[in-house]
Amino acid sequence: MTPPSTSNTAPLLDAAFLRRLERMAIAVKKVHLGAAKGERRSRRKGTSTEFADFRDYVQGDDLRHVDWNIYGRLDELYLKLFQEFEDVTLHLLLDVSQSMAFGTPQKFAFGQKLVAAMGYIGLSGYDRVSVGLLTGERTEGLTPIRGKASANKLFAFLQNAESAGSTHLDEALRMYSMRQRSRGVYVVISDFLDEHGVENALKRLCATRSDVYVVQVLAPEELAPELTGDLKLVDSESEQYTEVSVSRALMKRYAQNRDAFVEKVRNYCLSRGMGHYLVSSDTPVENILLDVFRKGGLLR
Amino acid sequence: MSFLDFFITPRAFAFLGLIPPLIILYLLKLRRSEVVIPSTMLWMRSLQDLTANAPFQKLRRNLLLLLQILILLLLTLALTRPYMKSSGIEGRNLCLLIDHSASMQTLEGDGTRLAQAKAAALEVVDGMERGDKAMVIAFAESADVGCELTDDRYHLRRAIEGIQARDTRSNVRDAAQIIRSIAPVNPDVTAVVHGLEVLLFSDGNIQEGERLAALSLPVQYIQVGKTNNNLGITRLSVRNDTSAEEARQCFIQVYNDRDTEAQTTLSLYFEDHLLGVDELSIPPGDTDEAIFVLPDLDAGILRAELDLEDALARDNTAWLSVKPETVIHVYLVGSPDSIGLSTLRHVFSLDPRVNLSVGTPEQFSPDEETDLYIFEGWSPEELPAGTLVFINTVPALEGLEVIGELSNPPVMGLDKEHPVLRYTNPGNVSIAKALQLTLPEGASTLVSTEGGPLIADISQSFQPMLLITFDIGDSNWPLHLSFPLFMQNVLAWLPQGQVAHESALTTGTPIEVYALPESLVAAVAGPDGSATTLTLDPLRPVYYAATQTAGPYTVTRGEQVDHYAVNLLDQSESAIRPAENVQLGSQQLAAATGPISFNKELWRWLLLGGLAVLAIEWWVYTYRAEY
Lengths: 300, 627
Description:
The structure holds two protein chains of two kinds. Chain A is α/β, with parallel strands linked by helices. Chain A contains nine helices and ten strands. In chain A, α3 (107-124) packs antiparallel against α4 (151-160) and α5 runs parallel beside α6 (199-206). The radius of gyration of chain A is 23 Å and the shape is elongated. In chain B, α4 (63-79) packs antiparallel against α12 (603-623) and α5 (113-126) packs antiparallel against α6 (153-161). Chains A and B meet through β8, β9 and α8 of A and β1 and α2 of B.
């Protein structure tokens, strides 16, 4: 069976939807150091007009920042510190393994749209957006971009992406983190159907000390498979096969295992302060953003 | 008996060769359709769970193949038509021939042989299947069709259960005749029933078995009974002692069927009064006799009884009807020099019962005492009362006319049923000449020749009359044995002589009942308490035939009461030892051992089993079950 083509020449998001996205913003819970000036409160003390703190004067400090009123009263030199506002890096990681190319609609296509929408929200909010396509043991990445003007670059990168290879989330994330060390907000979109297990990958995400959001995408065919008869089920990634004779008992058992798998990922995430969302690939991206992410605290 | 002997068409086992192609087809069929899915991870886990939970996984994986092989095996077995010996029957026409003669009343354990035979027959009926038919014939001296050929088990059961024992001999003559009527031996005659099989339930003591053999039908003999513990009275008669004047003796013979010598007490009663007792010692398989001297007795019943308990009680008692000695007054009228008259005088003078008077026509004057008038060559114008015999003369009766003379008339026909011709056969009598005449209405010809009767019964109401149309002296009849027998029959035919001084009938023999002027009905009381009313015919006797039960019978006509004794008195029935082989003519038929067996085919069950497995296979295929 030939895997369905994953390239898409149609625009990922229409203009009206983009305008609605501009009114949204990424919610950042933690305060990170930014790379450039932005709109996010930074841990760095800077030059804004918003007072932050005092500190003792040390030799070499710019005398323009000495608070002379205090010096007049106390005859001590204190430096007046101001809040710095910087940008934050939004890491959008999309699993593009072969398993994501399935479903109606495809999980990959769904992921493309979701990454595009999230990225546009980030770019609109003057944040740095970094995109990583996780495939096998490597990562293809888009150099961090800023500003709405870079949106087309983001969309073009996503539209050129193709799903291929097997999933090895842990290794792919390791490769990504070697390239992108900045903290920020991590949004990982995957089905997490990784035969190597997902615990190490999730642990690695947790170690970034960023805001991590796990979006688990499953196709309707995986949530409620419609299989009958004696079948040879071929794994799209490993090409291993399993012979099954579909019975009610088997379907029941499959549903139990699927729920247990999702629950396991969710519990792992929640216990480590990561957000977890289970979404079906046939859910409109707009609904995901407005209902799921906004209520879940990822967007505001 | 080899394994293949259990199959009617063992060649069908060749179909087992289809099993390898079936397996190949199954393997080819197992090329499952491929479905590419994102990941088999969850499916493999689910399968592992199920596999861990379900036993016989390898078996279950190939369950459909196993079921298909099983179906093929069952269908192949059905085609080989296996059979088993069964007590049931299948698609056959059965004639259940059940012996209910006297010997079948023998006690065997708790029940009689008849009960055993009925139980065996009921087993056969219970084993009947769709398409099977059976008929029930009970036979003893005669045969009764209890149930026509039917597949209705209810009626068959009722017919079998309704069979009652008879005190008569066992004779398959009538039964064979009935069977012959529906399954004729002649191939040109269309049989009503094809493929009739006869099941003979009996203890084997049957008469005229050759008639059954002549039917050329398959006969299975189901022997019932084991015991031979029986003593029975086989003869009971009264005779005059030739040595002592007027003395009468009762002669009783007892048969011992046991394997050991038997000691028993024989008692003789007259109407419940004990007349005598005798001790008998009878060797095994032999008889012993006892003789009792009888006192003067009124009319009544003599009863002989064996004082013992054995397996067959019916033959331990016998009855005899006795009457006091009576004198018959006979008046011979004819020419004194006639040869016929002197012959008759000689015949009657030898009979001690007869008081003979002889006279010429001129001397003739009727008297009230005379019972029998014999007119030889002359008849009076006015007929006297009593029984009349006319020889070579014709009385003045309306419709009776002489129309000529027959020369050397040959004897052509005999009415042997008439009492005066019983035990006689005047067939080879030569007659010089006879009167040719027409008979009045109601008369019957007893002996006929070409052109008219030789002897005729011309009885009028309540007056018995015989007509002999030839001169006895012009024939050689007096030289034949049939002549004195005929005259004895004439004496017995008299209303006074109808019941002999001593008489005993065998069971099944009808009792003749004559009408009396004062009574045209007769009440017959049987030994079992049954009461029957007979309407009598003034011209001819009426027969009471329901004498299958041994014992004393009483016939009451007006004020006249007659006693009849009906006895089994048959050594073949008293010999109750069951026959291992029943003799059917020249052919000996061995008893079927064990239960009655038929070849019961099993293919229907195998086919049903195949269908059932097919249904299971479909169910397994459709739902693939809860495993």
